[in-house]
Amino acid sequence: MEANQRIARIAAHLQLSNLQMEESSALRIAECRAKGGSPGFKVAILGAAGGIGQPLAMLMKMNPLVSVLHLYDVVNSPGVTADLSHMDTGAVVRGFLGQQQLESALTGMDLVIIPAGVPRKPGMTRDDLFNINAGIVKTLCEGVAKSCPNAIVNLISNPVNSTVPIAAEVFKKAGTYDPKRLLGVTTLDVVRANTFVAEVLGLDPREVIVPVVGGHAGVTILPLLSQVKPPSSFTPEETEYLTNRIQNGGTEVVEAKAGAGSATLSMAYAAVKFADACLRGLRGDAGIVECAFVASQVTELPFFATKVRLGRTGAEEVFQLGPLNEYERVGLEKAKKELAGSIQKESSHFRSVVPHQETITSENNYLIKEIMI
Ligand SMILES: NC(=O)c1ccc[n+]([C@@H]2O[C@H](COP(=O)([O-])OP(=O)(O)OC[C@H]3O[C@@H](n4cnc5c(N)ncnc54)[C@H](O)[C@@H]3O)[C@@H](O)[C@H]2O)c1
């Protein structure tokens, strides 16, 4: 009897303290003066709950140039947002779930990073992703055109060689296209090239800069080893080994992950390196130069990756290729041939393949992933 009374007393006490806790936390939330973080840029990540999206969101939350971070996905964005919002860094994090919240996610953004889509599985090329990711990119870029037409867009979704031309078409149709603001992210190729070249040279990768031009798939990825900094020379075997490894770095990861996706952590690192460069450019810093896949007149192709100078309005200057050696000239011809096909693929398939308002719900995203395996 006494024991029962004690239990009842404890239960009543617990109920009361839960109530008090709820009241006091409600008070804390109601009264707290949310300052909106430090001054800085507003950044949205579309596809923020994915393999790339999550580490990318964490690294952007740590970036002192970011004041507001919007995390959008069609699944799981509330969980990722709650988790990251407990980090004691300056950026305020807000989550958005599903297409009805896309407009709120995008309104007022300075930079939009898009890693939304399906990754490669073993045996797939980046082009195999085209039909699915094209629809996703189209929908998201329609959102950008409507809600933040002046934002810089960093497009990660593969195949970048085709999704960037698709995004350009969407922006043209909406009347908001500014080639300076649409940037295909090829930084992972540069990051890999820096790492692999540093290994061969026995240097710290942070000291090595390798320009990588062309596109972001197979032979379209063209590292310019003759322009490596610090100036270095390579034997024909080293050139062959490095070029192949840089071109196939993505496949190396896809195969090692054996069905569990493609590069996510190194990609998030590369995406943040590039996004940070874009933000420093937006801030007005001088001399910010990175490689990116952009609208270009460097070759006869409408899009091409080269070094670009990032400034207040995006890619303000697109650099020429510079002097190439014979090996690179041959590589350039191969890259251009392949790239022409990928860009053409976009224009011939765009209207017939891409449904008008396609988006991937959690359910059919799951189904698509099943089909992909
Ligand atoms: N540019 C590069 O160098 C590079 C490197 C690696 C991967 N990628 C590409 O990045 C993309 C994402 O890869 P991942 O490994 O993060 O894939 P993932 O499947 O782990 O994540 C993709 C995320 O996108 C979300 N998504 C799907 N449809 C959406 C929509 N309509 N709106 C918003 N979000 C949507 C999914 O819910 C998921 O959270 C793939 O296309 C992949 O090929 C690019």
UniProtKB/TrEMBL annotation:
Pfam families: Ldh_1_C, Ldh_1_N. It catalyses: (S)-malate + NAD(+) = oxaloacetate + NADH + H(+). InterPro entries: L-lactate/malate_DH, Lactate/malate_DH_C, Lactate/malate_DH_N, Lactate_DH/Glyco_Ohase_4_C, Malate_DH_AS, Malate_DH_type1, NAD(P)-bd_dom_sf. It is an enzyme of class 1 (oxidoreductase). Residues 186-346 form the Lactate/malate dehydrogenase C-terminal domain. Keywords: NAD, Oxidoreductase, Tricarboxylic acid cycle. The keyword Ribosomal protein does not apply. Residues 42-184 form the Lactate/malate dehydrogenase N-terminal domain. Homodimer. Belongs to the LDH/MDH superfamily. MDH type 1 family. PANTHER family: MALATE AND LACTATE DEHYDROGENASE, MALATE DEHYDROGENASE 2, PEROXISOMAL. This is Malate dehydrogenase.
